[in-house]
Amino acid sequence: MVAGNWKLNGSREGACSLAREVAASVVTGVDVVVCPVSVHLPEVAEVLKGTDVKLGAQNACAHEGGAYTGEVSSTMLAEFGCDYVIIGHSERRTLFGDTNESCAARHQAVMAAGLTSIFCVGETLEDREAGNTAAVVDAQLQAVFDLGGKQALDGAVVAYEPVWAIGTGVTASPEQAQEVHAHIRGFVAKQDQAAAAKLRILYGGSANPGNAAELFSKPDIDGGLIGGAALKSADFLAVCQAAAVQA
Ligand code: PGA
What we know:
It is a single chain. The protein is α/β, with parallel strands linked by helices. The protein has one domain: Aldolase class I (TIM Barrel, Alpha-Beta Barrel). The protein has 11 helices and 8 strands. The protein has helices spanning 12-24, 41-48, 74-79, 90-95, 100-112, 125-129, 133-148, 174-189, 193-198, 212-216, 233-246, and strands spanning 2-5, 32-35, 54-57, 84-87, 116-121, 157-160, 200-204, 224-226. Helix 2 links the parallel strand 2 (32-35) and strand 3. Helix 1 (12-24) runs parallel beside helix 11. The chain is globular, with a radius of gyration of 17 Å. It starts with a strand and ends with a helix. The model has no long low-confidence stretch (mean pLDDT 97). Bound molecules: 2-phosphoglycolic acid.
């Protein structure tokens, strides 16, 4: 699976053109998802109609409705054709105050609405240098289990996104990434073995056409969550092709 996280980029027409370019190239054997900003979702959904490319949002409210200014609910996203929602991206956690607990609540709402959460975890450089990578990732995942029970990640997608690699041009080495991915699968297996076995764990953090094939060759790396390289259709499609080769 390869998901493009378009973040806060693009114009109405630009988002549609990018979606059109991605959808025009069929990549078989890979689930391809694009995640535009929320106001672009309806028009991008129209562009993707009848194609194999799926639509995702970048966040969702933990609540169905009510006095939550500025939020969008999972049910509303589903109504506009979303199948996936990115939850707990490090930019949400560091810039907008999302906590392990609030991310868990958002995740639960997404799954309850029948959508698939792409639940992001990852450590800062400081965490890694202090030897705390596993502890940080475990706490992020544990909050989901604490709220939703042992099956809380069944059918979800997890994205391992080391904060120090996001948008920096510095990628985790395939070995570094594989080590954390295997750890994540093991941690989930302690709660739910069946869910862990089929869990798709994506790598994110400066993944691009130059490094994707090697990353995706690792046994526990099941695809990518792509930021910068998802904004150019040729680069994004090259990453999708790299995943197709491994599929
Ligand atoms: P990047 O972003 O590929 O630009 O590092 C990845 C992400 O934030 O999802």
